[in-house]
Write a sequence for this structure.
Protein backbone atom coordinates (compact mmCIF):
# COMPACT_ATOMS: atom_id res chain seq x y z
CA UNK A 1 0.00 0.00 0.00
CA UNK A 2 1.41 3.35 -1.03
CA UNK A 3 2.00 5.78 1.81
CA UNK A 4 0.42 9.15 1.01
CA UNK A 5 2.86 11.97 0.60
CA UNK A 6 2.62 14.62 3.32
CA UNK A 7 1.07 17.90 2.26
CA UNK A 8 3.69 20.50 1.44
CA UNK A 9 4.27 23.04 4.20
CA UNK A 10 2.70 26.38 3.45
CA UNK A 11 5.08 28.95 2.18
CA UNK A 12 5.84 31.62 4.77
CA UNK A 13 4.11 34.87 4.15
CA UNK A 14 6.51 37.62 3.17
CA UNK A 15 7.32 39.98 6.00
CA UNK A 16 6.00 43.49 5.50
CA UNK A 17 8.62 45.92 4.43
CA UNK A 18 9.48 48.43 7.16
CA UNK A 19 7.79 51.75 6.65
CA UNK A 20 10.46 54.44 6.53
CA UNK A 21 10.02 57.07 9.19
CA UNK A 22 9.48 60.55 7.86
CA UNK A 23 12.63 62.60 7.90
CA UNK A 24 11.97 65.91 9.64
CA UNK A 25 12.59 68.89 7.45
CA UNK A 26 15.72 70.75 8.45
CA UNK A 27 15.02 73.88 10.43
CA UNK A 28 15.92 77.09 8.66
CA UNK A 29 18.81 78.96 10.27
CA UNK A 30 18.09 81.69 12.77
CA UNK A 31 18.13 85.03 10.97
CA UNK A 32 20.17 87.76 12.67
CA UNK A 33 20.64 91.48 12.10
CA UNK A 34 23.75 93.22 13.45
CA UNK A 35 23.51 96.87 14.54
CA UNK A 36 26.79 98.53 15.50
CA UNK A 37 28.49 101.71 14.35
CA UNK A 38 31.90 99.99 14.22
CA UNK A 39 32.39 98.03 11.01
CA UNK A 40 35.12 95.85 12.55
CA UNK A 41 32.77 94.81 15.35
CA UNK A 42 30.06 93.85 12.84
CA UNK A 43 32.57 91.89 10.78
CA UNK A 44 33.84 90.01 13.83
CA UNK A 45 30.30 89.17 14.92
CA UNK A 46 29.38 87.98 11.44
CA UNK A 47 32.42 85.69 11.22
CA UNK A 48 31.63 84.12 14.60
CA UNK A 49 27.93 83.65 13.96
CA UNK A 50 28.09 82.40 10.40
CA UNK A 51 30.55 79.68 11.39
CA UNK A 52 27.48 77.97 12.87
CA UNK A 53 25.21 76.08 10.48
CA UNK A 54 22.03 77.20 12.28
CA UNK A 55 22.84 80.92 12.30
CA UNK A 56 22.70 83.39 9.42
CA UNK A 57 23.42 87.12 9.39
CA UNK A 58 20.90 88.68 7.01
CA UNK A 59 21.65 92.36 7.47
CA UNK A 60 23.80 95.03 9.09
CA UNK A 61 23.16 98.59 10.23
CA UNK A 62 25.61 101.24 11.38
CA UNK A 63 23.11 103.53 13.12
CA UNK A 64 19.85 103.22 14.95
CA UNK A 65 18.17 105.18 12.15
CA UNK A 66 19.28 102.50 9.69
CA UNK A 67 18.46 99.66 12.08
CA UNK A 68 14.74 100.37 12.52
CA UNK A 69 13.63 100.18 8.85
CA UNK A 70 16.10 97.35 8.15
CA UNK A 71 14.72 95.20 10.94
CA UNK A 72 11.15 95.95 9.88
CA UNK A 73 11.86 94.88 6.31
CA UNK A 74 13.89 91.76 7.09
CA UNK A 75 11.90 90.54 10.13
CA UNK A 76 14.84 88.63 11.63
CA UNK A 77 14.65 86.29 14.60
CA UNK A 78 17.30 88.09 16.65
CA UNK A 79 18.87 91.55 16.62
CA UNK A 80 22.21 92.33 18.24
CA UNK A 81 21.88 96.02 19.06
CA UNK A 82 24.70 98.28 20.18
CA UNK A 83 23.32 100.64 22.82
CA UNK A 84 25.46 103.60 21.79
CA UNK A 85 25.03 104.55 18.15
CA UNK A 86 24.72 107.86 16.29
CA UNK A 87 21.44 109.43 15.14
CA UNK A 88 19.22 107.04 17.11
CA UNK A 89 20.73 105.09 19.97
CA UNK A 90 20.03 101.44 20.64
CA UNK A 91 17.40 102.20 23.27
CA UNK A 92 15.21 104.31 21.00
CA UNK A 93 15.73 101.87 18.14
CA UNK A 94 14.64 99.01 20.40
CA UNK A 95 11.53 100.93 21.49
CA UNK A 96 10.57 101.75 17.91
CA UNK A 97 11.07 98.19 16.66
CA UNK A 98 9.06 96.64 19.47
CA UNK A 99 6.29 99.22 19.21
CA UNK A 100 5.77 98.97 15.46
CA UNK A 101 6.12 95.27 14.60
CA UNK A 102 3.33 92.77 15.18
CA UNK A 103 5.90 90.00 15.70
CA UNK A 104 9.09 91.78 16.70
CA UNK A 105 12.42 89.98 16.92
CA UNK A 106 14.23 89.25 20.13
CA UNK A 107 16.68 92.06 20.78
CA UNK A 108 19.95 91.67 22.67
CA UNK A 109 21.72 94.91 23.47
CA UNK A 110 25.49 94.87 23.28
CA UNK A 111 27.62 97.08 25.48
CA UNK A 112 31.21 97.62 26.59
CA UNK A 113 30.49 98.11 30.28
CA UNK A 114 28.41 95.87 32.51
CA UNK A 115 27.16 98.84 34.53
CA UNK A 116 26.21 100.94 31.52
CA UNK A 117 23.09 102.92 32.42
CA UNK A 118 21.96 102.54 28.81
CA UNK A 119 21.63 98.79 29.40
CA UNK A 120 19.05 99.27 32.13
CA UNK A 121 17.00 101.58 29.93
CA UNK A 122 17.20 99.10 27.06
CA UNK A 123 15.98 96.28 29.30
CA UNK A 124 13.08 98.46 30.42
CA UNK A 125 12.34 99.17 26.77
CA UNK A 126 11.88 95.45 26.12
CA UNK A 127 15.28 94.07 25.18
CA UNK A 128 15.54 90.35 25.96
CA UNK A 129 18.90 90.83 27.65
CA UNK A 130 22.36 92.22 27.17
CA UNK A 131 25.76 90.96 26.20
CA UNK A 132 29.21 92.41 26.79
CA UNK A 133 31.39 93.06 23.76
CA UNK A 134 34.17 91.13 25.45
CA UNK A 135 32.02 87.98 25.58
CA UNK A 136 33.71 84.96 24.03
CA UNK A 137 32.32 83.31 20.89
CA UNK A 138 30.57 80.51 22.77
CA UNK A 139 28.75 83.03 24.98
CA UNK A 140 27.67 85.02 21.92
CA UNK A 141 26.37 81.97 20.07
CA UNK A 142 24.65 80.64 23.18
CA UNK A 143 22.99 84.00 23.81
CA UNK A 144 21.54 84.15 20.30
CA UNK A 145 20.12 80.64 20.54
CA UNK A 146 18.80 81.28 24.04
CA UNK A 147 16.78 84.37 23.21
CA UNK A 148 15.59 82.91 19.90
CA UNK A 149 13.74 80.17 21.74
CA UNK A 150 11.98 82.73 23.93
CA UNK A 151 14.17 82.83 27.02
CA UNK A 152 15.69 85.97 28.51
CA UNK A 153 19.38 86.62 28.87
CA UNK A 154 19.60 87.64 32.51
CA UNK A 155 22.68 88.36 34.58
CA UNK A 156 21.15 88.66 38.07
CA UNK A 157 24.12 90.39 39.73
CA UNK A 158 24.36 92.99 36.98
CA UNK A 159 20.61 93.63 36.91
CA UNK A 160 20.62 93.94 40.70
CA UNK A 161 23.40 96.57 40.67
CA UNK A 162 21.78 98.48 37.81
CA UNK A 163 18.42 98.44 39.55
CA UNK A 164 19.95 99.61 42.82
CA UNK A 165 21.45 102.62 41.05
CA UNK A 166 18.14 103.49 39.39
CA UNK A 167 15.88 102.95 42.38
CA UNK A 168 18.05 104.51 45.09
CA UNK A 169 15.69 107.46 45.53
CA UNK A 170 12.48 105.60 44.80
CA UNK A 171 9.70 105.59 47.38
CA UNK A 172 9.63 102.58 49.71
CA UNK A 173 5.95 101.72 49.05
CA UNK A 174 5.48 98.66 46.86
CA UNK A 175 3.69 98.92 43.51
CA UNK A 176 -0.03 97.96 43.53
CA UNK A 177 0.59 94.80 41.50
CA UNK A 178 2.71 93.32 44.31
CA UNK A 179 -0.39 92.74 46.45
CA UNK A 180 -2.11 90.98 43.55
CA UNK A 181 0.51 88.24 43.27
CA UNK A 182 -0.39 84.88 44.69
CA UNK A 183 2.10 83.24 47.03
CA UNK A 184 3.31 80.88 44.30
CA UNK A 185 3.56 83.69 41.75
CA UNK A 186 5.69 85.62 44.22
CA UNK A 187 7.95 82.58 44.59
CA UNK A 188 8.27 82.34 40.81
CA UNK A 189 9.16 86.03 40.46
CA UNK A 190 11.86 85.74 43.13
CA UNK A 191 13.36 82.79 41.29
CA UNK A 192 13.10 84.61 37.96
CA UNK A 193 15.17 87.40 39.51
CA UNK A 194 17.93 84.89 40.25
CA UNK A 195 18.06 83.91 36.56
CA UNK A 196 16.57 80.41 36.87
CA UNK A 197 14.97 78.83 33.80
CA UNK A 198 11.46 77.37 33.85
CA UNK A 199 12.93 73.87 34.17
CA UNK A 200 15.10 74.91 37.11
CA UNK A 201 12.16 76.62 38.80
CA UNK A 202 10.09 73.49 38.26
CA UNK A 203 12.67 71.41 40.11
CA UNK A 204 13.10 74.00 42.89
CA UNK A 205 9.36 74.36 43.52
CA UNK A 206 8.46 70.70 43.00
CA UNK A 207 5.82 71.42 40.37
CA UNK A 208 5.47 70.58 36.70
CA UNK A 209 7.01 72.73 33.93
CA UNK A 210 3.56 73.62 32.59
CA UNK A 211 2.55 74.88 36.03
CA UNK A 212 5.63 77.09 36.15
CA UNK A 213 4.86 78.37 32.66
CA UNK A 214 1.35 79.29 33.81
CA UNK A 215 2.71 81.17 36.84
CA UNK A 216 5.27 83.00 34.69
CA UNK A 217 2.50 84.11 32.31
CA UNK A 218 0.48 85.38 35.27
CA UNK A 219 3.48 87.31 36.60
CA UNK A 220 4.04 88.94 33.21
CA UNK A 221 0.39 89.98 33.04
CA UNK A 222 0.26 91.39 36.56
CA UNK A 223 3.53 93.30 36.23
CA UNK A 224 2.61 94.55 32.74
CA UNK A 225 5.79 93.04 31.32
CA UNK A 226 6.61 91.89 27.80
CA UNK A 227 8.98 89.19 28.99
CA UNK A 228 10.90 87.84 31.99
CA UNK A 229 13.54 90.56 31.83
CA UNK A 230 10.96 93.32 32.13
CA UNK A 231 9.28 91.44 34.97
CA UNK A 232 12.54 91.35 36.92
CA UNK A 233 13.07 95.06 36.29
CA UNK A 234 9.52 95.66 37.53
CA UNK A 235 10.30 93.58 40.64
CA UNK A 236 13.08 95.98 41.58
CA UNK A 237 11.33 99.18 40.59
CA UNK A 238 8.08 98.11 42.21
CA UNK A 239 9.70 97.40 45.57
CA UNK A 240 9.01 93.66 45.38
CA UNK A 241 12.61 92.51 45.75
CA UNK A 242 13.41 95.02 48.49
CA UNK A 243 10.24 94.21 50.38
CA UNK A 244 10.01 90.47 49.83
CA UNK A 245 13.48 89.32 48.81
Amino acid sequence: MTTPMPAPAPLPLPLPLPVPLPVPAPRPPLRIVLCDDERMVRTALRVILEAEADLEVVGEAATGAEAVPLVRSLAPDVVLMDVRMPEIDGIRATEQILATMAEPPRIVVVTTFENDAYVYDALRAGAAGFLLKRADPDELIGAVRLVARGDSLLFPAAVRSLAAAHTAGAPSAAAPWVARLTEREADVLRLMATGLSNHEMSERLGVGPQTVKTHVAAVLTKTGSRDRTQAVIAAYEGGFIMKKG
Notes: The CA atoms of residues 129 and 153 lie 4 Å apart. The radius of gyration is 26 Å. The chain has a mean pLDDT of 86.
